[in-house]
Design a protein that fits this description.
alpha/beta, Aminopeptidase, Alpha-Beta Plaits, 2 domains, seven-stranded mixed sheet
Length: 489
């Protein structure tokens, strides 16, 4: 029996490998069909990005300095909108009733290719442009995920494509999406619900990272919600029996979550942040509030976690004689990987080649790594070979929701030290200087060159769409958000 099972496993693995190889060969043929025609066009596109470089660096640095957090990215959004308008795009503001969300459109007809751009910062990690930890604004925000580079690179790529449409080289439409609040409530989900991505044939996306890699990785789905416990105050020593502690309820709730960790899948995650827990020590507290985040490798897995967690909240309330209330913040889906599009991206990344760094940049990166207790391996500017699609091991993104409704082609570009801590001062220190700038320019080139392949080859567009249909597991996408516009409350 063991031999039969082993034979079946090897047979299926071989069949999968051969199928993947055949698909790769077919995509390569589609790319090579227009390769000679596209060579001079892609050179023009790269030249466009280089000619925009000064402006792109100026915009990204201004967004870095503004360091605006979710839903208040007014300066950052305006910088990008102004640049889009100055390059002839038609800008639509207040998308999905979100003041900082916008769309910038140029062209008409098919294909319609979108490109995502984020620009929100992370709270509490302000940092100067130096390789040792020192806040630029004490207690302020910082771009510890490189979103100042993200939105700027994507818009630069859109401008390069717009120029080709304007010349008549390409036919079709390009749309840049200014997408706020990715770091907290995931505003793209509201934009998806509004239907703004439904018009797209393909959507492009990238994210700052510590390697240059085509997007073959998925992400974790999640749900965010708050639990509020309501008790009764009393004197904590004179008559505690007259009180019902909301903080006791919250502690029992977190205890339940922590015991539940033993029984969840190894790929699942539970996080929480206590937001309110009483005011003074001698009063039994009547109010407590906690933000909880549950992650899993699929929406189905998150649903299981969510149901149990809500039961734990109810149990904590019953044990303490308190009342409780839960409020959904938002939820996001996992990324639906499109390997067909990833191969096209890989081809262009290899054409561009690796990013090179000066001795001073490598020294800067190594100083950061030393300061954070990491191996001093510098910066990785090489192009990583195309990787298999494995179970998600990293974070989550609302790009997952976009990828559930439209084929999404992704990549990552190096903007920081190799192996340094993310969402930290270490990334902020890089995202506002030349190391980050180089990754931004690289991403803008890779994105726009890949878009060029799609504008020139209807067959490639159809192949990407077919990949999307074949791998889509969810029958009906249902956004996990409340009615009305997003709110941090």
């Amino acid at each position: 029996m063991k031999k039969i099972k082993k034979f079946i496993f090897v047979f299926l693995l071989l069949a999968s490998t051969l199928g993947s190889y055949a698909q790769t060969q077919e995509i390569s043929k589609m790319i090579s069909f227009h390769e000679q025609e596209l060579k001079p066009i892609k050179k023009e596109i790269q030249a466009s990005i280089e000619s925009q470089q000064k402006n792109l660096i100026s915009i990204s640095d201004a967004i870095w300095e503004a360091a605006e957090t979710s839903l208040v990215e007014f300066t950052s959004s305006k910088l990008l909108k102004d640049y889009a308008r100055s390059n002839g795009f038609e800008v639509t503001e207040n998308v999905a009733d979100i003041p900082t969300a916008f769309m910038a459109k140029y062209g008409s007809g098919k294909p319609v290719i979108g490109i995502l751009g984020e620009f929100d910062a992370n709270a509490g990690i302000s940092q100067k442009r130096q390789p040792t930890k020192e806040p630029r604004v004490p207690g302020g925000a910082g771009h510890g995920c490189g979103h100042n580079l993200f939105g700027t690179a994507s818009l630069g790529a859109a401008v390069a494509i717009k120029e080709q449409i304007e010349k008549g080289t390409f036919k079709g439409t390009v749309i840049f999406y200014g997408t706020p609040a990715e770091e907290t409530i995931f505003a793209k989900v509201w934009m998806v619900r509004e239907g703004v991505f439904d018009q797209l044939d393909i959507c492009m996306d990238w994210h700052p990272g510590d390697s240059n890699i085509s997007g073959t990785e998925t992400s974790k789905a999640l749900v965010d919600y708050r639990v509020m416990f309501y008790g009764d105050t009393s004197h904590a020593s004179a008559d505690p029996w007259n009180g019902n502690s909301a903080v006791d309820a919250m502690e029992l709730y977190t205890t339940g979550l922590n015991y539940y960790r033993e029984h969840i899948l190894p790929t699942s995650r539970i996080h929480y942040q206590i937001e309110a827990a009483g005011d003074v020590v001698n009063v039994v507290p009547d109010y407590a509030k906690i933000w909880t985040r549950l992650r899993g490798n699929s929406v189905e897995n998150v649903n299981v976690l969510y149901e149990r967690a809500l039961n734990i909240a109810e149990a904590a309330s019953l044990m303490t004689g308190t009342k409780y209330e839960t409020k959904l913040i938002s939820g996001i889906y996992e990324i639906l990987v499109n390997r067909t599009g990833a191969q096209v991206m890989q081809n262009n990344m290899e054409t561009i080649g690796e990013i090179t760094y000066s001795e001073n940049e490598i020294k800067y990166a190594n100083t950061i790594l030393k300061e954070t207790g990491k191996p001093q391996v510098g910066i990785d500017g090489s192009v990583v070979p195309m990787q298999p699609t494995l179970a998600a091991t990293g974070g989550s993104t609302d790009v997952g929701d976009v990828s559930q409704v439209v084929p999404t082609v992704r990549m990552s570009a190096t903007i920081a030290s190799k192996g340094g801590p993310w969402h930290s001062w270490a990334v902020v220190a890089c995202s506002g200087m030349s190391i980050g700038h180089k990754g931004m320019i690289y991403a803008a080139k890779a994105l726009s060159m890949t878009m060029a392949d799609f504008y020139k080859s209807p067959k490639l567009v159809e192949a990407v769409k077919e990949d999307f249909k074949k791998n889509k597991k969810i029958k009906e996408y249902v956004p996990r958000i409340l009615p009305g516009p997003p709110s941090l409350d």
